[in-house]
Amino acid sequence: MRILVVGGAGYIGSHVAQALISRGHQVVAFDNLSTGHRGNVQGEVLFRHGDILLPETLDTVCREFAFDGLVHLAALKAAGESMLLPEKYSVHNITGSLNLIHAAVRHGIRHFVFSSSAAVYGEPAYLPIDEKHPTRPENYYGYTKLAIEQFLDWYARLKGFHYVALRYFNAAGYDVTGAITGLEKSPANLFPVVMETAMGWRPAMQVFGKDYATRDGTGVRDYIHVGDLAVAHAQALEYLESKGENQIINLGSETGLTVLEILRKTKELIQREIPHQIVERRVGDTASVVASARYAREILGWEAKSSDVDTLVSTTWRAYQKHAAAGGAKP
Question: What span, in angstroms and rounded, lies between the C-alpha atoms of 106 and 70?
Fold first, then answer.
């Protein structure tokens, strides 16, 4: 298949592009480079600069290539910021996604894979979280993801294309071959914060709360290696090509890690201290969030092969070391 990867120069998108190439597909990465890196687009992946907020750039790339499918990974993703700047998230996530859906309809793109989020679920009513769990987002970012899923459902019924929405839990790690090393800009998620602290780019990091009902008092989250995520996107497109059935599917490791466990493992593997301070819980944080990925195994034949904590830590640290060795400063 010929696939358009929107956000293909970004952290997850660049890994998705490489997974598709490795499975014999043709790939065009489409990105405005606001957070992505041109250097992440490698090998046989073609690059086109454009923006989902500029529909004419979408039309240009879709006219140039007759795409069979697309992967939509272009979104703002900081949950806290979304609560302060909902208008920004409305424009980028909702308007941008509608522009992309409309372009897919105009240009006859049949298969649509959407990067959704476990943020659509909100406070867990039970664990592990499966696809039948109630969707009650607790931040505006999560709401935008749920709204886009609903748009896709309506457009699939009205316009005849097919989609898979992949609800990620917490993406982490880097390419196990070491080829993709472009660091995220201004990250807020745990693994990059840990690495920036280990590199000395932050004097210390904060651990939000140590009084949760967990094995060490810190929050438990389900971390999934970005390479495992990437394979799932390729499998989702291939599923649509063969089955043509709309699906919503969780992607997680099904194994929760606490904040302190990640800090201890990082210290053990890289032999550096990770200065940190215990501070008050953040409003809206929950004790534990862990996925059920049973449906992904059943529908896609997918499994999390690289999502153990050693691989998550070691591949991330290698990317940061390569960045520093090349003279790079904090992104």
Answer: 13
Share above pLDDT 70 across residues of the chain, in percent, rounded to a whole number: 100
* CATH code of the domain made up of 2-171+223-251: 3.40.50.720
The CATH architecture assigned to 190-221+254-325 reads Alpha-Beta Complex (3.90)
Cβ(252)–Cβ(295) below 8 Å: no
Of 35, 54, 44, the closest CA to residue 3 belongs to 44
**Location of structure tokens 């390729």:** 234
Which of 106, 19, 119, 34 has the alpha carbon at shortest distance from 71? 19
Beta strands in the chain (DSSP E): 2-6, 26-31, 46-49, 69-72, 111-117, 162-168, 170-172, 205-208, 220-225, 247-251, 256-258, 276-279, 288-289
Q: Output 152-158 pairs: Cβ under 8 A, ≥24 positions apart.
A: 152/101, 152/112, 152/114, 152/246, 153/246, 155/101, 155/105, 156/112, 156/246
Residue of 89, 121, 140, 141 with catalytic role: 141
Give the model confidence (pLDDT) of 20-57 as tens digits.
999 999 999 999 999 999 999 999 999 999 999 999 99
pTM of the predicted structure, to 2 decimals? 0.95
Query: How many CB atoms sit inside 10 A of residue 174's CB?
Result: 28
Domain ranges of the chain: 2-171+223-251, 190-221+254-325
Nearest to 244 by CA among 28, 69, 22: 69
Q: Is 141 a catalytic residue?
A: yes
